Amino acid sequence: MGRPNTLVLREMKTTPPQVSSPNLLADRVYETLRGHIAQGHWAPGTQLRIREVAALVGTSVMPVREAFRRLEQAGLILTEPYRGASVRELSIDELEYVYDVRIMLEPDAARRGALLADDAAVETMRQHWRLLEKAAADGDIAGAVAQDELLLSALFSAGNNPVLTGLIQGMWDTCRPYKNLWVRDAVGHGLSRWSYLADLVAAVETRDGDSAFRILEHVCRTSRSTVRGILDPLSA
Predict the structure, then answer these.
(1) Are the CB atoms for 122 and 203 separated by under 8 Å?
(2) pLDDT tens across 18-28, in order?
């Protein structure tokens, strides 16, 4: 996939974290760096040098070291002897493994949520669907990914199984670079790629758990197929 990119500081403007507690500062730095990776500001393979990142976020190196440790635990970066840290590369094998787990978890969470959702949960889903439509129309990839996840989180949370919802949201961190590829492709094809969300909201409105299950299972499988097709030329 070519040589890794190096971190370019001028590409982003970051507001220095304004907190005093070392633990809160480390949390804020972690969330900032996680956001840059999740939103695609740093491409896979980008090298992350501690002092450069500390200058970027306006802190000392210590909270950045702690953030790097947590990012590696979350599967977002890799650290190697003599090479330091870099944003994790994408691979066909990981894509398959991640989506295997999503297919096991998300359709079941959708069915549970559809059966138990109240009117407030349905309205929250509608609101995120409208915001996703706007983000997609504006070509806002990060915004579209965020609204997609917020909509699904509202559904999954309605199922009243926080362990299941937490597992899925944790998987999204690992999966998000692949989801970004899908969203870039979907933005290029208009809102038709997101039509399943309208069907999903309709299923939740009628408390049709089986339809919600089938919709999410189909979406996970077709998304994996789309991303595999995008990655194949890069992995040749």
Answers:
(1) no
(2) 444 557 888 88
Pairwise CA distance, residues 205 & 121, whole Å: 9
Q: Read off the DSSP letter of residue 150.
A: H
Quick check: 124 and 154 in contact, CB under 8 A? Answer: yes
Q: What is the pLDDT of residue 106?
A: 97
Strand ranges (DSSP E) for the chain? 47-48, 77-80, 84-87
Average pLDDT of the residues of the chain: 84
Give how far Cα 38 sits from Cα of 41, 109, 194, 207, 209, Å: 8, 23, 20, 32, 30
How far, CA to CA in Å, does 87 sit from each of 37, 109, 134, 148, 170? 7, 30, 29, 23, 17
* C-alpha to C-alpha distances, 201 to 20, 126, 141, 151, 187, nearest whole angstrom: 43, 7, 21, 9, 20
Structural domain 92-231, CATH architecture: Up-down Bundle (1.20)
Phi/psi for 76 (5° steps) reads: -95, -25
**CA separation for the pair 55, 35 (Å, rounded):** 17
Q: Where are the domains of the chain?
A: 23-87, 92-231
Report pLDDT digits (tens) over 32-41: 888 787 667 7
CATH class of the region 23-87: mainly alpha
For residue 227, the SS3 value is helix
List of residues 6+ apart from 65 with CB closer than 8 A: 50
pLDDT attached to residue 158? 97
Residues 40-72: tens digit of each pLDDT: 778 788 899 999 999 988 999 999 999 999 888
